[in-house]
Amino acid sequence: MDAFYASVELLRYPQLKGLPVVIGGGRRAVDAAIAPGQEALPLGEIPLSQFPLLKDYTGRGVITTATYAARQFGVGSAMGLMKAAKLCPQAIILPVDFPEYGKYSRLFKSVITEIAPVMQDRGVDEVYIDFTEVPGGQREGGRVLARLIQKAIFDATGLTCSVGVAPNKLLAKMASEFNKPNGISVVLEQDLETLIWPLACRKINGIGPKADEKLQALGIKTIGELAAKELHWLVEHFGRATGAWMFEASHGRDDRELSLDSEPVSISRETTFERDLHAVRDKAELSAVFTRLCEQVASDLQRKGYLGKTIGIKLRYDDFKGVTRDQTIDRYIADAASIRRAAGQALKRAPLTQRLRLLGVRVGALIKEDDAKRYSDNKETPHHEQDALLFPDD
DNA sequence: TCTGGGGTCCTAGGACCC
DNA sequence: TCTGGGGTCCTAGGACCC
């Protein structure tokens, strides 16, 4: 989806169309910047002068999405808001409204599966679609179906998207970047040398800042230069698994299937404080946040129908360094009090002398609530070990 | 001008078991 | 006196992605 969060906001506030808008920052900080007295107006009629400007924003945070008008100024995703304010002070800033984006996410995905049922979720604004078995999916190399999907999504949501069509997920992902926004790009195997090899290695999904830095240090900037290296050379420098993967990727090869209906591995909540907190001096405040995070994770688990038995905490200190601590307990839980208890145990094992910037709570080793029930109801032949794990004596 | 929040996967060491 | 081999689970950190 093109500039997804920002585009959803423009549906609510069409008066912002064409203007530089960034989404991000803490809700409290952004709300404080919104002038009072306009609450009764329909959203679409709120005058431009009432929207908060990036130059007035003082809180922490990064940009999650910028409109294309804002990108003209060099601001973009993951950029700190204070830095962005220097580049584009007149941009309007809006707080992130995840529930709203979730609604549109479910909507556009249901539009797709109506047309092409084999779809892999790749987060809130991205999917892989298998065109192979869709009637007409091969016409004009997939262009016809891509256009159909774009139109159906636009008609249902008013949102645009960009589509890459290719023989595998690796190439399709790269192709989707070629023609943004609202574009279609078809990449065939024979386009490898002309379209893929000139690109920076960083364009490969899976090569991030660290791997790219290492590649550059070895004199490799483009995918073509990567493809010119021999397998054993890559294995020497990056290890067996990564080296082999890089070799295949540089040649445009990728045999991964679409993974459908995957189960979550962990569920977590974390928050960055408005100011750094000290474990002793700000104990009350910290404790309240900690409890709230546990309650939120518990509520997420229950709503989604999962239990977990590995409870973890995450800390980030004022120097931005972080630690995690895990605690696996002998039963599966989803209630706030039990999570808080286990997370408290984990927290005790972390250094707490330095000021804290972030606190997070995570529950992993998940099982579906239904499966836990089935064991306890003895409707299936239970293993005694599983009984003991799920419902120990204490 | 410091750098969000929600995830997945991989690696590596140690405990523990047979 | 100088100690195996295989497997699983747990923990911590880190890279990466949306």
Spell out the key features of this protein:
394 residues; alpha+beta; MutS, DNA mismatch repair protein, domain I; Alpha-Beta Plaits; DNA polymerase, domain 1; 4 domains; 4-stranded antiparallel beta sheet; 3-stranded mixed beta sheet; 16 helices; 11 strands; 18% strand; disordered C terminus; DNA-binding
Gyration radius from CA atoms, angstroms: 24 Å
The CATH topology of the largest domain: Dna Ligase, domain 1
Q: From the coordinates shown, what is the CATH architecture of the largest domain?
A: 2-Layer Sandwich
Which sequence of SSEs, written as H and E, runs from N to C? Answer: HEHEHHEHEEHEHEHHHHHEHEEHEHH
Main beta sheet: 4 strands, antiparallel
* CATH class call of the largest domain: Alpha Beta
What amount of the residues lies in strands? 15-25%
Helix count, DSSP H or I runs of 4 or more residues:
16
List segments where confidence is low: pLDDT < 50 over at least 5 consecutive residues. 378-394
What's the domain count? 4
Q: Number of DSSP strands?
A: 11
End-to-end distance: 49 Å
Quaternary assembly = single chain
Helix percentage: 25-40%
Q: Please, what is the average pLDDT?
A: 92
Description of the structure:
By secondary structure, this protein is an alpha+beta fold. It folds into four domains: 4-96, MutS, DNA mismatch repair protein, domain I (3-Layer(aba) Sandwich); 100-190, Alpha-Beta Plaits; 192-250, Orthogonal Bundle (DNA polymerase, domain 1); 266-389, DNA polymerase, Y-family, little finger domain (Dna Ligase, domain 1, 2-Layer Sandwich), CATH 3.30.1490.100. Helices cover 39% and strands 18% of the residues. A four-stranded antiparallel beta sheet has the order 8-11-9-10. It is globular. Mean pLDDT is 92; it is low at 378-394. The chain binds a DNA duplex (18 and 18 nucleotides) through helix 4, helix 9, strand 8 and strand 10.
